[in-house]
Amino acid sequence: MTRTSSSDVIQNPDAAAHAPASGGEARDAGTAARRRAGRARRIVSRLLGAVVVLWGAATAAFLAQVALPGDRATAILNIRTGQAQERTPAELAPIIEAYGLHDPVLVQYLHYLTGLVRGDLGTSYQQFRPVWDLIGEQLGATFVLSLVAIALAWVIMIAWVTLTAGRSRRVSAFGSTVDTVAAALPPYWLGILLLLVFALNLRWFPVIGGTGIAGIVLPALTLAIPLAGFMGQSVRAEYERALEQPFVLSARMRGMGDLQIRLRHVLRHASLPAITLTGWAIGATVSVAVIVEQIYSRPGIGKTLVAAVGAQDLPVVTGIVILVALAYVVANLLVDIVYTLIDPRLEQS
Amino acid sequence: MTAVASTKTAAPRRTRIRVAPGLVVAVVFAALFAIAAVVPQILATTAPTAQDFTAALRPPSFEHWFGTDESGRDLYSRVIHGTRESLLIGIGAAGIALVAALVLGSLAALGDRFTSAIVNRGIEVVFAFPILLLALLLVSILGASAWTQVIAVGVSTAPGYARMVRGQILAAKNAGYVEAARALGHSRGRVLTRHVLPNAVRPLVAVFTMAIGQSIVWASGLAFLGLGVAPPSSEWGALLDAGRAYILQAPWLTFVPGLVILVLALTATSLGKHIQNSLEKGE
Fold first, then answer.
1. pLDDT per residue over A157-179, tens digit each?
2. Residues of chain B neighbouring A195 (CB-CB closer than 8 A)
3. Which of A309, A312, A323 to mutate to test the interface with B (most CBs of B within 10 A)?
């Protein structure tokens, strides 16, 4: 009984909505309840997974701070003053006090975790200011760049795959070769190439990327092209498989145009792997943005992060790591929601 | 009629080995990189540190194929002489990544339930983090140096390979020949060392080749940010870092080393894919 009703729904996603009209009341109430319970279980397990990732990030961040070679208080003071020397206990006392280094490591760990929950990312070793003050205002520019880049990557990927997938053998092979090469492009090289061609020679865009719309195009493209190639690699296989499906044949028989079939039916099936990759891409683009921001002298967390890494100012680095983990987790929860919207079959499994 | 038939039979039955043109190009490049790494003086036109201030910041020309830097040093010779160090960084990082991946992947696939659950979860959590960010985190713990570059890139790329190793071991574990070996009464250890591991490890030859290219790309990214080998060296990442100050006046100083890195990465990927294909066909 359950079996037939669930397979009905798989074949016709709309059946769920029409079910009360077609089936017995009691049976549908039962399936609906089961489905609700299943959905609740899935949400809970997703949220748990998200918490585990965040906790893992926080723990790694804490361990990184503890792992700093040598005595921690001495290291902090030396990083702060830019020197490397032995310190007297009198010099170290305020540092030990400020960072609570006299506590056992486990207590420090708990302090760190509770601080994070309250939104306290720690205090910079170098500048003695809260990490959030250092990166908070620059974070916006980097996230905007990253989101624009992801959107551009989708546009490029869809256009390229629609143009080349499932065409003649030569065109398909060329399309997938371009995907592979694009995915392999090192960001520093692509950034310089785009800068040379479009800013220095053609003068279409400013050389120094400001915060304006014209200034974001080249940096975003630098991030988007490799991402588009990467997504294209996984979408292309699905796309070509979907083109062979019976529903494509039936759409053709209904007289639907090729482009319309590709965009309305095939793309919907083929885009699933790219949606998964998008959740992952948030973190990846934010971190590669560091390189891009250096090339185009763009505002963002890049300069702060690189300076902090060079000076071993760990709280700043780990603060950014935790924020990226947070962005990753949120993006993946969104991806899950989008997934079920695009592919209602997943509701059932 | 008969003549045609006889020539057909008389012709030596050469088994035509089809060589893809992509493979030829990849092998040629790989050979060039190998020569540059082992005996750079054969390919280089001048010493990598020979300065000529009258010819500073010249664009690529017939005399200086890749142009010159701010001290008039020939970029082509510097790139050739930097090959060895760059390749060593790539090989080192790829080696660390694959050894770590092998250990973690085997634990995840073969450990008891508790171990495998922990290791699996750990791999997934670390895998969630962007490679560059992980590498930056490691550099900030260890301090910037060539060794740090190797370790940071190796450790950050390991989780991805660990997932692959785990998948391969699981696949090998469930394969028919393993079941057969078990049915023949071979011990668990023997099945593992004689059947499961060799079949799971063999594809790693291809992966290692590709990983070298990838590692060099990531390591150069670190170097580009000024977190790699110190500038006097002509390692490719160091060249990128040194050229960054001249991005507008002398873009070839960053563009050319970047292109060389890209060519190496593509060569490694293409060779790796061919090895993978031939391994699959051979089995």
1. 999 998 988 888 888 889 988 99
2. 247, 251
3. A309
Look at residue A233 and tell me whether its pLDDT is greater than 80.
Answer: yes
What residues in B contact A317, CB-CB < 8 Å?
136-137, 140
Query: CB of A93 within 8 A of CB of A47?
Result: no
Q: Which CATH class is domain B64-281?
A: mainly alpha
Ranges in chain B, pLDDT < 70: 1-18, 231, 282-283
Contact B137 A200 (CB under 8 A): no
Contact B225/A306, CB-based, under 8 Å? yes
- Residue A13 is predicted with a pLDDT of 39
The domain locations on chain B are 64-281
pLDDT at B101: 94
Contact B137, A58 (CB under 8 A): no
Please judge whether B261 and A186 are an interchain contact, meaning their C-beta atoms are less than 8 angstroms apart: yes
Query: Between B130, B132, B259, which is nearest A189 by CB?
Result: B259
Cβ-in-10-Å burial (0-12, 13-18, 19+) of A135 comes to: buried
Residue A156 and residue A151: Cα distance in Å, rounded? 9
Min Cα separation A343/chain B (Å) = 24
ipTM over 0.85: no
Residue A212's alpha-carbon distances to A31, A288, A296, B10, B259, in angstroms, are: 53, 20, 13, 75, 30
8 Å CB contact between B102 and B197:
no
B16: closest CA of chain A, how far (Å): 23
Tokens of A247: 């529903």
Per-residue pLDDT, A157: 94
Min Cα separation A69/chain B (Å):
7
B44 vs B83: CA distance, rounded Å: 11
CA atoms within 13 A on the CB side of B176: 0
Length of chain B: 283
What residues pair up with A130 in beta bridges, in sequence order? A123
Distance from CA of B49 to the nearest CA of A (A): 24
∠B77-B82-B88 over CA atoms, to 5°? 155
- Which chain A residue has the Cα nearest residue B128? A280
The Cα–Cα gap between B233 and B246 comes to 18
- Bridge-partner residues for B68, per DSSP? B74
Tell if the CB–CB gap between B140 and A53 is shorter than 8 Å: no
User: What is the DSSP annotation of A160-226?
Assistant: HHHHHTTS-HHHHHHHHHHHHHHHH--HHHHHHHHIIIIIIIS--S-SS--SSHHHHHHHHHHHHHH
Measure CA of the first residue to CA of the last residue in chain B; give whole Å.
42
Provide the shortest C-alpha distance from residue B61 to chain A (in Å): 18
Neighbouring C-alpha atoms within 13 Å toward the C-beta of A242: 22
pLDDT value of residue A6? 38
With CA atoms as reference, the chain A residue closest to B136 would be A309
A152-to-A220, A228, A238, A268, B22 alpha-carbon distances in Å: 7, 8, 21, 18, 30
